[in-house]
Amino acid sequence: xxxxxxxxxxxxxxxxxxxxxxxxxxxxxxxxxxxxxxxxxxxxxxxxxxxxxxxxxxxxxxxxxxxxxxxxxxxxxxxxxxxxxxxxxxxxxxxxxxxxxxxxxxxxxxxxxxxxxxxxxxxxxxxxxxxxxxxxxxxxxxxxxxxxxxxxxxxxxxxxxxxxxxxxxxxxxxxxxxxxxxxxxxxxxxxxxxxxxxxxxxxxxxxxxxxxxxxxxxxxxxxxxxxxxxxxxxxxxxxxxxxxxxxxxxxxxxxxxxxxxxxxxxxxxxxxxxxxxxxxxxxxxxxxxxxxxxxxxxxxxxxxxxxxxxxxxxxxxxxxxxxxxxxxxxxxxxxxxxxxxxxxxxxxxxxxxxxxxxxxxxxxxxxxxxxxxxxxxxxxxxxxxxxxxxxxxxxxxxxxxxxxxxxxxxxxxxxxxxxxxxxxxxxxxxxxxxxxxxxxxxxxxxxxxxxxxxxxxxxxxxxxxxxxxxxxxxxxxxxxxxxxxxxxxxxxxxxxxxxxxxxxxxxxxxxxxxxxxxxxxxxxxxxxxxxxxxxxxxxxxxxxxxxxxxxxxxxxxxxxxxxxxxxxxxxxxxxxxxxxxxxxxxxxxxxxxxxxxxxxxxxxxxxxxxxxxxxxxxxxxxxxxxxxxxxxxxxxxxxxxxxxxxxxxxxxxxxxxxxxxxxxxxxxxxxxxxxxxxxxxxxxxxxxxxxxxxxxxxxxxxxxxxxxxxxxxxxxx
Length: 717
Known about the structure:
This protein is mainly alpha-helical. β3 (668-672), α37 and β4 form a beta-alpha-beta unit. The chain is elongated.
């Protein structure tokens, strides 16, 4: 026997080693030349073609086989037809196999049951189940797993309102009908099950659901052996059909059976935590996935994106501080780059808030381009997310352009656009849009009133704000919440009506929080009202004694009034309590990299260039009439040192770095975690005029658009 014949024998003994059509063709040709016709050899070649899902070649060989065909030939064709979605042909071959006297084994029934499930034909599925029982295959692991999967799909169809078809609705097939007539509704004892015609209209949806749930559980409970697939099928069935407690209970039971959850288990239970916004348990699953190497799995990544996105809707600010948006973006990148999976509209609408909260306009634009190429730009939810993203990333014009192109608007899109205008200081546009929304019969909700009150606050429109504040309860029966009270208190403080603001907060229908009192304390600092500041501080300290901002604000009020000893006492008290002031930080994105700066920061690799550019800018600004406002420096130092401290504020470092790192005319976009000081605001107006660029600064409350020596806020912020 030569080497070629030995190789052929080896390959025939291990058909799965053939990985391509050309290899299969070569082996087939070699066998035809060197071996006499043999049903066994041809059946093996047929199985190889079927393993490669080569339906046409498989059918040619099958039709050339002498009758009766081998069991291997039948089951190979049944599997291949099912793979190609030709379910009726698969079932036809199954009945022909039975008619020829060949008995199916555990390799046949999974494909047949899958065909029944995907044809949504429950009566035929029950018929096959009866056949399985009669042939004694109901104890086989693979067959039982396929049975449970089928009943789980029927259950999902009923739960989701899908229609389960009668056999005649799908197509005519006498053999499948005969099969149904012969074995429909046979139970373990060969008796007719009274619920066998479960698709009949006489049974309610609830009865049908109960029947499929019972069938799935009965198969599971009677299995002599269960593997991870068995458990996963039941867990997924419960999870997908809203039986969340049962799904989680089965996960615990699986652990008791010494089986560890795999990626499929995790992707089944993560949506449960997403639905209930259970971030703690979701993060535990995430940790388990990382420890066991499942975090790169595409289904796990998709489920984690959805879970983090839904959990962030409960408390956006909390999640941003804890890095949840970074996690979402990380998994979204994995889905695109590693798993090569195309995101759907849900993925996009879930990930866009991450760009909005992290103010990553570059990434947001890239996603927008992907959305357009994927033709999702007309999706209402995605369009609303894009409006929100562009507004929060500083590009209000593009946000409005997308808003105007939307064929219809929901409450989310209206609110996103109104809040966008509010954050950018365009109060009149925000109010006009709110009125348009009302005129079109859209009833404003809780968040919409927060948006319009914020717009009024940023523009100092006290009378307009009061009108909307009273309207929400009188006209729309919306009970004011802490956000509405905070917006009103902030407005009274901005316009200098400090006493009125104090009385408003004191008479609130709900207990004021530390954040509400903080807005008034900040206003006292701006308007240099030391007496009221001390009074507000006492109220704030009562409700929130650990509020670092309160200590800092009052300390600044004392410093501005020249009461350095009182300011020092507060600083010492903060140190003794372990309270630390949040350092001012500004960041800018240059060439796909985020650069962060703190006040007086000399650690940046380009600090020398930044410092030289700052000196040049300062000389040009002073020639234009800039005079540093050293009153903003609340340190007991000389004037020269005060001027130096002003020039080293974090936003100035970031802006200067942006100027020297980008081409002339490029807009500079900087984000700061605290309020922009008065002197930096003045300096940035001068810089915008000198360099001829738009400079967009987002501080902790709003956007400032500097252009040609002016700011969009009108010096009111």
